[in-house]
Amino acid sequence: MGTLSPFMISCLCLAGAIVVLSRPTEHTQGNNLKLIFHSRWDNFDERGPYMGGDVILPPGMDIRNGVIGDHLRWPNATLIYSLDRNFTSPELAIISEAMQEIEALTCIRFAPRNQNETGYIFVARGGPGTGCYSFLGRLGTVQQLNLENPGCIRKGIVMHEFIHAIGFYHEQSREDRDDYVTINWSNIQPGTEFNFLKATVTATFNVTYDYGSLMHYSKYSFATNTSIPTIIPIDPNAEIGQRERLSDKDIYKINAMYCPNYTT
């Protein structure tokens, strides 16, 4: 199957999963893993031409942190996907590892597409310059999740794009973000300011702002001068832009969105 036009992407998940949740605190660090926060703008997923670099919004949709409409969510918390035949074996292993990690931490499941499935994610192996991108939520038809080679086929970036497909936008798009970060508008590349717009409606599931989210921009995103940050955390000790793993709050919000039987 060849690379399709930008109306495609993949899927997730398992029905009926019951997950017991405890609400993450301000300072929970998950498995106490040391994360890698990027000191310069090297997150490929932030560099594309779409909203936020890597997100294609469904028709008529405004910016949100989490998709509110049930029609944009994946039935039974299961993402249906098809993989580009041009991926190499090592690349397929990375994609599989990303899906397995999401499954291990949330109620989301991934299922390969069968010939009767019309709503699914096509995970495309894009050439240089095509970028990393995904549609936000489920379209109900074929939708593309593009992974530029090289650059995008890293476990953390693959997970990031799948989380967009699950239904989450970037953390710094939250309507309350100005309480947590300052945007340095004077250093943003001309013509890319739209990537820093705030949401008018935010589905945060009562979870506080997450500097450590896999879905947060890095400090130097879309910077004209890459030695000067475009996003400055108000908390001087906060680090942003990691692409290593889901944070505790990422995990909580995904489960809150898709698992109706969860308890806090």
Automatic annotation (TrEMBL):
GO terms for biological process: proteolysis. It holds the Pfam family Astacin. Residues 1-22 form the signal peptide. InterPro entries: Astacin-like_dom, MetalloPept_cat_dom_sf, Peptidase_M12A, Peptidase_Metallo. One of its GO terms (molecular function) is metalloendopeptidase activity. It comes from the Eukaryota. The keyword Metal-binding applies. This is Metalloendopeptidase.
